[in-house]
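Appendix B. Extra example for self-study. Work through it before the problem class; the solution is given directly after the inputs so you can check yourself.
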Amino acid sequence: MSQHYNFKDIEQKWRKYWGEVDINPKDDAKPKMYCLDMFPYPSGQGLHVGHWRGYVLSDVISRQKLMQGHRVIHPMGWDAFGLPAENYAIENGVHPTDGLKTSIANFKRQLKDIGAMYDWDLELNTTDPAFYKWTQWIFVKMFERGLAYEKEMPLNWCPSCKVVLANEEAEGGVCERCKQPTTKKNLRQWMLKITEYAERLLVDLDDLAWPEKVKKMQAEWIGKSHGAKIDFAIDGRDEKITVFTTRPDTICGATFIVLAPEHELVQALTTDENREAVERYVKEATTISNIDRMAAKEKTGVFTGAFAVNPADGCHLQVWVADYVLADYGTGAIMCVPAHDERDLEFAEKFGLPVVEVISSEGILINSDQYNGLTCDEAKEAIGADLEKAGVGEKTTNYRLRDWVFSRQRYWGEPIPLIHCHKCGVVAVPEGDLPVELPHVASYKPTDTGESPLAAIEEWVNVPCPKCGDGAKRETNTMPQWAGSSWYFLRYCDVDNTQGLIGEAAKKLLPVDYYVGGVEHAVLHLLYARFYTKFLYDIGVVDFSEPFVRLFNQGMINRANPATGVVEKMAKSKGNGVSPDEILEKYGSDALRMYMLFIGPPELDAEWNDNGIEGVYRFLTKLWRLVHDNLPKLVATTDDHEKLKHKMIRDISSRMDNLALNTAVSGFMEYTNKATQLAKDKGVDKATLEAMVTMLAPFAPHIAEELWLTLGNSETIFKQPWPTFDPSKAVDDTITMVVQINGKLRGDMQVAVDIAKDNAIALAKEVVADKLVGVEIVKEVFVPKKLVNFVVK
RNA sequence: GCGGAUGUGGCGGAACUGGCAGACGCGCUGGACUUAGAAUCCAGUGGGCAACCGUGCAGGUUCGAUUCCUGUCAUCCGCACCA
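Solution. C-alpha cells for the complete assembly:
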C-alpha cells in the first residue's frame, strides 16, 4: 500500500491554507450557529482516536452549517485547573503550569491534526487570570446575593497523609495514595445554594432538545417529591420530632419513629439506661464511610428509650436511631409504617416492632379510625387538612438536590475572592481588585491541617480589610474544577473583553446551539452550567436562562484489549488505546475522520476495528481516481447524470439532517460506486463530481478542497453553498414492484412508477401465474410503488 | 430494587411513516494483472442439496412485522435505604 495515495502532503497544505485564509469570517449578517465541544482537561496522556469521535462530529456539523450560510462559532479551550496537574506538581516539585504548557501544546497539535475548523482566536484557558477574574466575579455576585454561605461539612480525611481527599480519591474508604483507611473530618466549607434553583432547574428541562436520558438523570438528581412534614410530640418532654413523609395517609400505621444518627435530638431524647448503647451506635455510624454504610446488608439501630405521640391517633411510638435514615434528606427523621414500606418492615421484623396494616388490598384505608373507608388520595387530603388545622403538620415539597460544596483545600484552583476581617466579618474582594491571583510559588507541600497550601503563604494571606483597613486574612480555599466550566461557553464569544464578562454584541452569538460531549457529564457539569446561566440571567448578565439549546452525547469507542481480549472503553492507561499519530501517518486525517463517523451511529458506543479504516481509505482513493480519471474526458450532463446527482444530494442531505452520519458516509460510498459504474458506460459530467466533492467537504475537508481545485475551481470549497436537489429529478420512471402471495415474495416486475392498480394486479397475475393455479384469490392488496400481494386459500 | 439503552450474517452495521431483511464496509473464497508480492480490478459470500428457514425468546395484531402490542431473557450504562 505504500506506493499508493498518500494524502498527508495534501492535508498539510490545506491546514496551512486554513491557517492563513479565514474560511469562516465573522459576518454578523448571517444567522449564527454556535457549535461547541466540551473543552478538554489537557492531560499529559494526549489524545487517542476515541477522543476524535466528538470532535469530528462537531466539526462536520460546523462545516456543513457554514456551507448552509451560517456564521459558525466553533471554539476550543482548556479546562486546566484541578487535581492531576496539582498532584503532578507536588510529586515533581514543579509548578502546575510547567506540566500544563507542554500538555496544552501537545493537545493543540493533536487537535489541529483533526483538521477541525476551530477558531483559535477565541481560545481560552480557565487558569488564565484574565479568565478567572470573571469566575471570581460571578462568585462575588453570588456571595452578595446570599447564595454563598459557610458551613461545617464532613470531608474525607486521610489521617496518615493528613490531607483532605475528594470522593474519587477516597474510593472504598481508602486513601488513593497511602491505601490507609480514611475518616471524616469536619471542616468549614463554602457552599452554593443551588437548591434555591431546584424548581427552575427541573421545570426548564422540558423545553431542552436534549437526550431524554440526560433530562431524566437530571430530574432524578433534583429528585422532587411531594409530601408533608408532621410533628410528633415526645412523651414527657417539650421537644418534638418533625418527620417528612410522602404518605401521610398511612399515619395510623406508623408503629415507631427512626432518627438519623446525626439528628440533633438524639442526645437529648436518649434515656440514661440507653445512653451508652446509643452513643456507641452513633459514633460507629458517623465514622464509617458512606460506602460501607450503604454496603451493609442488614438493618441496624438502637432504641433511645423515648416515646413519641402519633398526632393522628395518640398512640405511643418507640423512638429509634438507625443509619438507614439519612440525615440530610427531608428532616432526618421518619415515621415508620412497616406494613407498607419494605425498609421499615425489615427493621420491624429484626427488632420485633409491631406491624399494622392500614390500607386494604383494594387501596382503601382500614384500622384508621375516622379515616376508614377513604381512598389513599382522599385520606392524604383529609389527614393533611386535619393535621394542618391542629398546627402539627404542613404540606411540603422536598428535593433530593443538596447545596453545592464549593470549596477545595487545594492550591491549583481559583482563589475564593473573600477576606476574613475580625471586625467586618467576611468581606468580598472589591471588583477593582479582581482577579485575586494565585501566588506563584516554585513548589509547595500540602498542609497537615487540612487547609489549602495557600494558608502557609503568609505574605499572600495577610491583607488589609477592604472595608476598614485593619489587618485581615484572605480566604485560602479554592474553587472546584467545575467553577470555570460552569460558564466558559459564555466567554468564548468575547474572550478579550476586559470591561465585562460579556459585551452586548457577543451576547447575540449565544446561547450554544449544539453542545457535543460525553454522557459522563450528564448531571454535574451540565447542571452546574445551567445553574450559573440562570443566576447570570437573574442579575442581567445574559438574556437567556438555558445555556445549551441542543445537546448531543456521542458514544464511546471500545476496543479489545490486546493483552486480555476483553472489549472495553479505549484508554491509554488500559493499554488498548490507538494513537492517532500512527493512523495519520498511514492513512491521513480525512480517512480517520470518515472512519470515526462510519464506525456506527454517533450516539451509540462502537467498537474500533483495526482493519475498518481500510474501507474508508479505499473509498477516498476511489473517489480520488473517479475525479482524476474522468477529468480529461468529462461529458455533457444527461438525464442519467441528473438522476444520480439529485438522488445523491437528497439521500446524503437527509441523512445529515438526522445526524445519521454513519449512513451518510455509506451514502458517499454507494454513490461513488454508482458514479464509477456510470462513468464506465457513459462518462461522467462535471456537475455530478462537483456536487459530490462539495458534500464531502464537511467530512473530508482536505481532500475535498484539493479535488475542488482539481475540478478547475479557484477558491476554497467552503464558500460553496450546500447543494440542493430537485425532487422531480430524483425519481425513476420505472421501478421494481414486488409480487407476493400471502405476504411471501414470489416474483417482481418492472413497471411505470404511476401504474394503475388494475394494471399492476393484472400484470402481477401473469408474473406468478404458475403459482396461482388451483388456488382461490380471496384478496388483492396493491401498495403503490411497492408491491402487489395476493391472499389465497 | 428503580430508570435508560441495546440484542439483525464470521464482524461493524443498514432498512424513512409496517411492504424485496442483510445497504455500505471489514473479513473470507475464486479469478484477472504480475517472475513474485503489494496495490488495483472482476465475480461470489445469512443457513439449507431442496421445498423452505431465518432480525434474542414466547405469544398477539395484520394481507404483510426487524418495525406495532403483551410477556420474557441477556448484555451494557446510570441511580440506589431519598421515607
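Self-check: Chain A has a mean pLDDT of 91. If your reasoning did not lead you there, revisit section 3.
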